[in-house]
């Protein structure tokens, strides 16, 4: 095995004789050749045995160990408690030669690895890869590449530390060293092996930037048992969490391993680790597509339709909403798990949105279908528009997550145009309301309106009415067109909200005023891009 050198011999010999699989041995020998890990398990074992035989023949020796003093050396084959004796005596067992330990090597070939618990053995084989791919294909996702992720049982970090500490002591006896950071990570080695197999079976390349994720969650029945000593040594690292079945999470175990002293670890856990009783379980095989974002503009023609579902104390007040009328079609076509709706501001349930509409965006979570042509998006837009006379959408298009930020950029600096039908208690003439036309850049102080005080903090907001234009109707009615700073409460500007908005139409006209109808005529946000019909 050309990747190994003489300094790797003690690592290979110790780990082979303590039940470590050949791929984990390569990891501890810091072998970075990806293709080597893909060789069959049996071939790798034979190559390692041949490597030991050749190096021993060169040196004419049968034992690596430096026996000093002899009375403290414990041969592995003499006792089943060898690993435990190591912890209490602080000494490594003498390493048997290949000839002498050949039986041990042969018998360990079919056993579960004492470091990876079978991850780099059974779960690298073709039948498991096929099982993963069957799960992916049955989920019916659209994807052109994939990223593979794996979640490992927390005690693998404990066993890896134990193997390293065992090797560290042996290497020190030989005047050598093994840096923990040089060891190839188990996840990395597993991906080296599994990526080409998944890519071939799925017919698409592995790509670390892919939005389609295939993940495998491994678990082991002895996790709590093997990690319990860490909770005793470092109790502050393990705190119960509401959504966790066990306190021994990967992060908690890693934190404890960073904190525990080496001598305390050696006292409580066999180094190298003993053979496990069980193999890992592939608990879950999951697929997830990155979110897709759809944007457009909507018009709302109903005065009895909220923007989002109107539910108070668990009771639904109205049967539908703008959000639902749009999203139900997108959810069905994109086959998503859920969605998140956002827009450039919002209108009240009794307010219409006219003109070129209000910009909106919908995040579709974990969609099965992600590829749509421009023509298919137009068809989808038409389906939404045909389904209801309460709303219409335009400029429906796929956008990026980053582009959505443009909808919210400088939101309060944007302007909006409104049309309000206003009633006054005392009769008015045309000249009475003409003064409103001459007012420019009127500054308001608006306390949080009483009607939204239950969901918004109490504050005084400064807003600006840029221009107004009045349209006389009769002695008690006129229409007012306003261009305002975004975020202005128009209803409160008209009736004053019991003096909470100053000035207001009532105070400007010196009479009581109220608003009967309000329409949003334009939302001056240049997004999303206008599409040709």
TrEMBL record:
InterPro entries documented for this protein: PsdUridine_synth_cat_dom_sf, Pus10-like, Pus10-like_C, Pus10_N_euk
Keyword Magnesium applies: no
UniProt keyword terms in alphabetical order: Coiled coil, Cytoplasm, Isomerase, Metal-binding, Mitochondrion, Nucleus, tRNA processing, Zinc
Pfam short name (any one): Pus10_N_euk
GO molecular function, one term: metal ion binding
Enzyme Commission number(s): 5.4.99.25
Domain Pus10-like C-terminal: 293-524
Protein's GO biological process: tRNA pseudouridine synthesis
Catalytic function, reaction form: uridine(55) in tRNA = pseudouridine(55) in tRNA; uridine(54) in tRNA = pseudouridine(54) in tRNA
Main localisation: cytoplasm
Broad EC category: isomerase
Top-rank taxon: Eukaryota
Family label: Belongs to the pseudouridine synthase Pus10 family.
Protein name listed in UniProt: tRNA pseudouridine synthase Pus10
Organism: Piprites chloris
Native organism taxonomy: Eukaryota, Metazoa, Chordata, Craniata, Vertebrata
Underlying gene: Pus10
């Amino acid at each position: 095995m050309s990747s190994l050198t003489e300094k790797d011999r003690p690592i290979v010999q110790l780990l082979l004789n303590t039940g470590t699989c050949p791929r984990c041995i390569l990891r501890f020998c810091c072998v970075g050749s990806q293709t080597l890990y893909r060789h069959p398990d049996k071939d790798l074992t034979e190559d390692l045995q041949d490597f030991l035989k050749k190096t021993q023949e060169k040196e004419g020796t049968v034992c690596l160990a430096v026996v000093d003093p002899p009375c403290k050396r414990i041969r592995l084959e003499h006792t089943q408690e060898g690993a435990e004796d190591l912890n209490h005596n602080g000494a490594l067992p003498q390493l048997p030669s290949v000839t002498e330990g050949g039986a041990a090597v042969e018998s360990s070939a079919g056993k579960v690895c004492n470091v990876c618990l079978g991850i780099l053995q059974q779960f690298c084989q073709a039948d498991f890869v096929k099982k993963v791919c069957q799960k992916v294909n049955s989920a019916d996702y659209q994807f052109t590449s994939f990223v593979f992720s794996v979640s490992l049982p927390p005690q693998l970090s404990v066993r890896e530390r134990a193997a390293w500490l065992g090797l560290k002591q042996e290497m020190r006896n030989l005047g050598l060293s093994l840096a923990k950071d040089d060891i190839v990570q188990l996840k990395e080695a597993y991906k080296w092996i599994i990526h080409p197999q998944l890519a071939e079976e799925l017919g698409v390349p592995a790509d670390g930037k892919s939005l389609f994720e295939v993940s495998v969650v491994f678990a082991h029945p002895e996790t709590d048992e093997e990690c319990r000593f860490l909770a005793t040594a470092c109790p502050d690292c393990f705190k119960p969490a509401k959504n966790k079945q066990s306190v021994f999470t990967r992060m908690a175990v890693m934190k404890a391993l960073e904190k525990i002293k080496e001598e305390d670890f050696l006292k409580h856990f066999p180094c190298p680790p003993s053979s496990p009783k069980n193999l890992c379980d592939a608990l879950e095989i999951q697929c997830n597509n990155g979110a897709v974002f759809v944007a457009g503009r909507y018009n709302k023609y109903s005065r009895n339709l909220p923007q989002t579902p109107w539910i108070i104390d668990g009771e639904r007040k109205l049967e539908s909403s703008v959000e639902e009328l749009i999203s139900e079609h997108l959810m069905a076509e994109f086959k998503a798990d859920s969605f998140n709706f956002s827009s450039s501001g919002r209108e009240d349930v009794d307010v219409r949105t006219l003109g070129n509409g209000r910009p909106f965006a919908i995040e579709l979570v974990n969609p099965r279908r992600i590829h749509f042509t421009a023509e298919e998006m137009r068809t989808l837009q038409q389906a939404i528009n045909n389904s209801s006379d309460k709303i219409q959408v335009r400029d429906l298009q796929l956008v990026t997550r980053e582009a959505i930020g443009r909808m919210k950029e400088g939101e309060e600096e944007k302007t909006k145009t409104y049309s309000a039908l206003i009633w006054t208690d005392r009769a008015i003439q045309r000249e009475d309301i003409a003064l409103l036309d001459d007012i420019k850049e009127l500054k308001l102080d608006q306390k949080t309106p009483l009607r939204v005080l239950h969901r918004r903090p109490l504050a005084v907001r400064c807003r600006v009415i840029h221009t107004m234009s009045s349209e006389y109707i009769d002695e008690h009615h006129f229409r007012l067109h306003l261009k305002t700073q975004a975020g202005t409460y128009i209803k409160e500007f008209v009736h004053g909200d019991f003096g909470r908005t100053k000035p207001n139409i009532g105070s400007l006209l010196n009479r009581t005023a109220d608003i009967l109808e309000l329409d949003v005529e334009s939302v001056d946000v240049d997004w999303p891009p206008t599409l040709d019909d």
